[in-house]
Amino acid sequence: MSKSDKLVVPEQVPGPIPEEIVFGSSEVMQAIRRKVGKLAQTVVPVLIQGESGSGKEILARYIHLNSPYREGPFIKVSCAAIPSDLTESELFGYSKGAFTGANDAKPGRVEMAHLGSLYLDEIAELDPTRQAKLLQVLQDGRFYRIGDQEETRIDTRVICATNRNLEKEITAGTFRQDLFYRINVFHIFMPPLRQRREDIPAMAQHLVTMCARRFDRPRPPLSGETLRWMQNHDWPGNIRELENWVIRYVLMGAPELRAAFDNREPIPGLPTGDGSKPVLPLKEITKNVIMAAERALILKTLEHHHWNRRRTAETLKVSYRALIYKIRQVGLPSKRLAKRAVVAPNAPTANAEALAGAAAAGTGSASPAPAATSPASATATAMASTAAPAILRGE
Fold it and tell me: Of 198, 259, 250, whose CA–CA distance to 222 is shortest?
C-alpha cells in the first residue's frame, strides 16, 4: 500500500470447519473439493454461484484459509445490505474533509482486505457505477478514496458470490460484462442440500456440536431415525434452514422437534399439492409472487402519472434505467403502447391472475381480490417469505 496510515485491524476469521464437513462425501461436492485444491493456492479471482444458504461463504472462507493470503484478513462485504448512497464510501473509504462530517480519514472494505481476501457477497446487487470502480481495482489494484488525490494500491484475493444468473443480468443490462469476465476466472456452483442428501448427517452432527457449545447445553445424540428423517426433507432454505432446525433440536429435544416439523402451518399464498409440499420450488413461488406484486405496483404508479416514466421512477425511488428494466421484466407495455394500456386499465393480466390464484390457494377464498388493488400487502407477503436466519460459521 502507498500509505502507512491505511492499515486497519483485520476481521477475525472463525476457526476452520473440518474439510469433511465443508465438502461432505457426495460426488458433486468431491468434484468441487478437487477443483478448490487446484485453485486455492493461486491468487486469481473466484466466482461462487448457488442458492441462498447453500454454503457459499463457508467455501469462500475455506479458500482463504488455504490460499497464500491465509495470514491476512478475510473481509466480507454484503453488497445487498449497503445503502446505495453509502456504497462507495463503504467499499473505498474517504479522506479527511471529503464531505461534511468526514472529520477523519476512513479506509474502505477493499482497503481493509490488503494482503488478505475480499469476499463480495451478492455481487449482482452493486450498481453499475460501483461495478466500474471495482473493475479498476481488479485490473490494476489501484483506486482513490473519496476526496483523495493520492492513489491507493492494494494486493488482495477477490472472491465473489451470488444467487443470481449473471449471464441473464448482463443481457438485462444490470451487470457489466467486462466485470463478469474479470471475476469469473474460476467458477464454482454450490449445489443445494437436496442434491447432496448424503452430506446431511455429518453436517447435522457438526451443527449440533456447534449449537450445544453456543448455547452451553449438553450435546444431544442424533438417532438414525432422526438423521433419515432429515435426509428426506428438501431443505428449501438449505444450510440456513438446517441450522435453524438443529438449534430447535438442541434447545427442545427430538420429540418437540418432530412435532414442530410435522405440524408446520402452511404459508398463506403458497399452493400445495399433497398438503405437505409446495407444487413449485419455494424459490420459484417467491419469485413469481414478487414479480406479480412489482407489476401491479408499477402499473398503478404509471397510470397515476399518465405513463410518465421519469415521474414514476421518482415516486418508486428507483433509477430511470432500473424502471425501464423492470417494465420489460414484468411484461408491461412500452411507452409506445401506453395508450392501449390506459384504455382498459381494469383488464386482467397474467401475472395478476397468477398472484390472485396463489392467494386463493393459500386462503381458500373462492373469489380473491386482484393483486393490482393491493400492491402493498402483496409486497409485504413477498418480503416476509424471503426471511432467513444467520448461518453458523464454526465460531
Answer: 250
Topology of domain 194-262, per CATH? Helicase, Ruva Protein; domain 3 (1.10.8)
Q: Is the dihedral of CA 260, 263, 269, 270 positive or negative?
A: positive
CA distance 97 to 105: 8
E-strand spans in the chain? 46-50, 74-78, 117-121, 142-143, 152-153, 157-162, 186-190
- Surface-to-core class of residue 300, CB atoms within 10 Å of its CB (0-12 exposed, 13-18 middle, 19+ buried): middle
Return the CATH fold of 4-191. Rossmann fold (3.40.50)
From the CB of residue 15, how many other CB atoms can be counted at a distance below 10 Å? 10
Q: What is the DSSP letter of 272?
A: B
What residue type is assigned to position 71 of the chain? E
Could you read off the pLDDT of 233-264 as tens digits, one per residue?
A: 899 999 999 999 899 888 887 666 666 566 55
Distance in angstroms (rounded) separating the CA atoms of residues 42 and 52? 26
pLDDT digits (tens, 9 = 90+) for 112-133: 999 999 999 999 999 888 899 8
Q: What is the pTM of this model?
A: 0.63
